[in-house]
Design brief:
By secondary structure, this protein is of the alpha+beta class. About 30% of the residues lie in helices and about 30% in strands. The chain has a single domain, classed as Tetrahydropterin Synthase, Chain A (2-Layer Sandwich), CATH 3.30.479.10. The structure holds nickel (II) ion.
């Protein structure tokens, strides 16, 4: 019997979206306010969902306590109060869009959980804008 367990989290971080090959106007045209040169912050929110068989010994798909610690170590410590472009090596040359960040978060968690568990992460950059990734 399979079920999905989810935990929400949040971090505040700065970023700037731009393409080095484009001039300022083209960057503003494509990325809007997110292209402003001096960076800006977002209060990111996310939902980490793990799907798998319910372990009959524990009644758990995955320990929510372990998930809480995993999220803190692999997501919050890395991102909270950071400048994503400057502080996280992956984003030195990858645009820190919601899509690219959610894939990065997925990889951070995926490498720490059993391969027979399915993982899906939803990342909200704003209340209305969000991206999802499940590894497919
Ligand atoms: Ni932005």
């Amino acid at each position: 019997m399979k079920a999905t367990i989810s935990r929400k989290g949040h971090f505040s971080a700065a970023h700037r979206l731009y393409n080095v090959h484009w001039d300022h106007n083209k960057n503003i045209e494509e990325f809007g306010k997110c292209a402003y040169v001096n960076y800006h912050g977002h209060n990111y929110k996310y939902i980490v969902s793990i799907t798998g068989e319910i372990n009959p010994k524990t009644g758990f798909v995955f320990s929510i306590q372990k998930l809480k610690n995993l999220i803190r170590e692999e997501i919050d410590v890395l991102f909270d109060h950071k400048n994503i472009n400057v502080d996280i090596e992956k984003f030195y040359d990858v645009n820190p869009t919601t899509e690219n960040i959610v894939v990065f978060l997925w990889n951070q968690i995926k490498k720490k959980i059993s391969s027979n568990l399915d993982l899906k992460i939803t990342l909200y950059e704003t209340e209305n804008n969000f991206a999802e990734y499940d590894g497919s």
